[in-house]
Structures are given as C-alpha cells and as structure tokens.
Amino acid sequence: MRSILGLERLDAGAITLDNAPFDKTRRREWLNGFGMLFQGSALFDSLPVWQNVAFRLLHRLPREAARTIAIDKLERVGLDAASADRYPAELSGGMQKRAALARAIADDPKWLFFDEPTTGLDPVTAQTINRLIRDLVTETGATALTITHDLTTVRTVADSVALLKDGRIAWQGSVADMRTSTHSDLTRFIAAGA
User: Which of 83, 108, 118, 144 could potentially form a cystine with 79 if both were Cys, beta carbons 3.0 to 4.6 Å apart?
Assistant: First the structure.
C-alpha cells in the first residue's frame, strides 16, 4: 500500500492502473480519485470535524458547499450534523473512525484504501465499521483494498483475499475458498485468530 500511495519506491515489480503503467500522468489521475482510511484515523486535531472531512474539497469548492458535503458524508456514516463543529478530541474512538471514513468518501473516490480499519475499536464498534465499509464500497462501486489482521473484517468486507508472508503472496482466493483451504500458512493464521 505504501508503494501504491507513493510513499515508498518499489524494489521490484510494477504497479499498473487499469492494466496500464502507473506513470506520472496516471499517478496524478489516481491521486485525485482515491480515499484513505488510516489506521489511527489521522484527523487534524486543530480542525473541526467538518473541515477534516472536507479537507480535499476545500481546495476546489466554496467553503459552504464543502461543509454541506461534509455534513452529508458524516450523516452517511452515522454521525449527526452536530458532530461537524466538534473537534476530533471531543469524539470517541468509534466516532473518530466514522469521521475518518466520511473523509475517505467525501470526494466520491474510485478507489478506497483501508489500513487496519478496526484497530483499537471494541468488537461491536468494529463490526459497525466493517458493515459501513462493505455498504459504502457496494454503494459507490469503488475498488477497495483493505489491509487487516482481523479475520472478522476479512469475512465481512472482502470478496478476494491475499495472505502475505515475508513480503510475498502466500495464498489468495475468495472468502469461501479461505474456509475450505488446507494451505498451511492460511490454516495457521486462521487457527491463531480463532
């Protein structure tokens, strides 16, 4: 994910977008079309929630239009309009995760990235976030990539699964294939998470 985001250079291999090389022109297109939910939410403490959600929008839309979209996205993830003027520190961990999810979808992205989306959440809130992710990906038709160690998240949000080991794909298949696989790395991972 760090390489896709441009934060780390590739040692080997290549990144393609729609089966074409991921060159500088394509990277710009891509940067304008993705949303990201960071593991720690990564909200700006000094900005009210609505400005966090509308952060990218404020660079190209009038302030009130960006605020309207932000409030709409906050409501879509289960936060009321009153939360828009609060600061991240005034929100619970689950509410912060929802606000960060609203920011990820604020610009109606084609691609969504979720980095350990349920880290630090209680099981009930984690499952709420998982269902929100699944619903949002389905509604938007976005392509989503989730990195997680949480098997409940995998089973809830994934269609296709890849198990990484030592920087390589050790196993890949569908969630249904995961249940019946006898691949040793996968069965160990599942047994450890049960």
Answer: 83
What CA–CA distance (Å, rounded) separates 93 from 71?
19
pTM of the model: 0.85
CATH of the domain spanning 23-150 = 3.40.50.300
H/E segment holding residue 163: strand 160-165
| Overall size of the chain counted in residues | 194
What's the pLDDT tens digit per position in 114-173?
A: 999 998 888 998 999 999 999 999 998 998 999 999 999 999 999 999 999 988 899 999
What's at 11, amino acid-wise?
D
Query: Which of 53, 70, 62 is closest to 104 using CA atoms?
Result: 53
| CB burial of residue 25 (10 Å; 0-12, 13-18, 19+) | exposed
Q: Which residues contact residue 10 at a Cβ distance below 8 angstroms, ignoring those fewer than 6 apart?
A: 3
Strands 16-17 and 111-115: unpaired
For CATH 3.40.50.300, list the domain ranges present in the chain.
23-150
